[in-house]
């Protein structure tokens, strides 16, 4: 059976998702984050699902029987990767915890259940597909209910994460804030539209409606990927964590401590210490680590490490503009202001200024 224009339009969305996933992976090597890995996983999942559905719609599975039923575990993984992207995007400092592997438990159970089918020969799989042989792992109504429940549940968890972490750092530029918020709203709106189209399949179980559902997915991917490509950097989110919403410090204490913190950075230049730690600064100020962390997050709208790096970047900008340091290498300037590696200096400089150190020096000369 020949592919139609509609088939190619659907595949186009999947193809764009694949290309963007490769692009995100290449950019993530420089701007590494767990969130971006789950974004890549989500895009690849959508691409493979669209490809498999096109095989199904055009009855081409007979030529690739080993791909049969792979769309089932992918359907369970898609909402998981979508949610985990939101989860780690809002927690850039978080690390992967062993208990989070439980998110993949339903997919693992499904793979175990479907194993008798996967172990069949290619010929037997074709016969099962043609309903000439009984399916050793037949689809069951509860599976569809579980899939929909997980998709809806993880969607609302993603919405909750977005709602919970709406406060964004005042240190983030306004265009960056708008771009990131639009990207996240686009993701949520697109995925909500996909869920509604999936519900349509349930209410009106006709093949053309299922086809329409995947056209919506393809359109969602094309629009979302074009939006992602239009941004100079991958989406990041500096937030004010809710746990700091209520501080045990009064406003007067905060103002006094913040003044002291700035004095330590500007006069004593603590930021020049490559191994500067939160505990060390808290001891100098006579407060505990949690209070200092609260102070920086509430008053500066950023993490302690970003606060320190802000002073380092300001110092680096002065050195890069100075005639005395004009012949000094950019890497040496980074080490002079407290960065331990070239990569950390370049990443922080780009984050705070929107340009690389070499671009800044060239424009300043």
TrEMBL record:
Chain segments annotated as transmembrane: 6-27, 34-52, 72-90, 102-120, 140-163, 183-205, 211-230
Cited Pfam families: HTH_18
Domain HTH araC/xylS-type positions: 262-363
KW Glycoprotein (keyword) present: no
Molecular function per GO: DNA-binding transcription factor activity; sequence-specific DNA binding
Keyword set includes DNA-binding: yes
Alphabetically ordered keywords of this record: DNA-binding, Membrane, Transcription, Transcription regulation, Transmembrane, Transmembrane helix
Name of the protein in question: AraC-like DNA-binding protein
Species of provenance: Runella defluvii
């Amino acid at each position: 059976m020949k592919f139609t224009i509609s088939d190619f339009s659907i595949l186009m969305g999947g193809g764009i998702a694949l290309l963007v996933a490769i692009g995100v992976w290449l950019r993530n090597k420089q701007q590494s984050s767990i969130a971006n890995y789950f974004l890549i996983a989500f895009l690849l999942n959508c691409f493979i699902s669209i490809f498999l559905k096109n095989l199904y719609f055009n009855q081409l599975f007979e030529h690739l029987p080993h791909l049969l039923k792979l769309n089932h575990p992918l359907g369970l993984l898609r909402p998981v990767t979508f949610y985990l992207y939101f989860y780690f995007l809002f927690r850039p400092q978080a690390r992967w915890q062993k208990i989070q592997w439980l998110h993949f438990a339903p997919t693992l159970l499904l793979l175990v259940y479907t194993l008798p089918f996967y172990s069949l020969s290619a010929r037997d799989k074709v016969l099962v597909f043609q309903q000439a042989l009984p399916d050793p792992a037949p689809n069951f109504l509860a599976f569809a209910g579980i899939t929909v429940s997980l998709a809806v549940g993880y969607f609302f968890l993603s919405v909750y994460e977005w709602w919970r972490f709406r406060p964004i750092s005042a240190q983030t530029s306004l265009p960056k804030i708008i771009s990131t918020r639009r990207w996240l709203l686009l993701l949520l709106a697109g995925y909500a539209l996909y869920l509604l189209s999936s519900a349509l399949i349930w209410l009106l179980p006709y093949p053309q409606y299922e086809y329409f559902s995947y056209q919506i997915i393809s359109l969602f991917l094309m629009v979302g990927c074009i939006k992602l490509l239009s941004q100079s950097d991958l989406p990041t989110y500096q937030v004010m964590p809710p746990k700091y919403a209520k501080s045990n410090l009064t406003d007067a204490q905060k103002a006094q401590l913040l003044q002291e913190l700035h004095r330590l950075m500007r006069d004593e230049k603590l930021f020049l210490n490559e191994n500067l730690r939160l505990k060390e600064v808290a001891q100098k100020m006579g407060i505990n680590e949690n209070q200092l962390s609260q102070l920086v997050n509430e008053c500066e709208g950023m993490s302690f490490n970003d606060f320190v790096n802000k002073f380092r970047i300001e110092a680096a900008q002065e050195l890069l503009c100075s005639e005395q340091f004009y012949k000094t290498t950019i890497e040496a300037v980074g080490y002079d202001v407290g960065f331990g590696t070239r990569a950390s200096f370049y990443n922080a400089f780009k984050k705070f200024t929107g340009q690389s150190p070499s671009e800044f020096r060239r424009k300043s000369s």
